[in-house]
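== Folding task for one protein ==

=== Format: two labelled lines per protein ===

==== Paired sequence and structure tokens ====
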Amino acid sequence: MAYKISDACVACGTCIDECPVEAISAGDICVIDPDKCIDCGTCAGVCPSEAISAE
């Protein structure tokens, strides 16, 4: 089960640096590649806008 980033994302990039498998890319909002995501939850723990949750 991959994590998903909602529209509440402010594209701050905090999650990108924390992802151990580089599954997150930047854009208008950040996006998680579900094929790379290892379901560790690190991104959700550091997201200041609480935009990341388990799918």
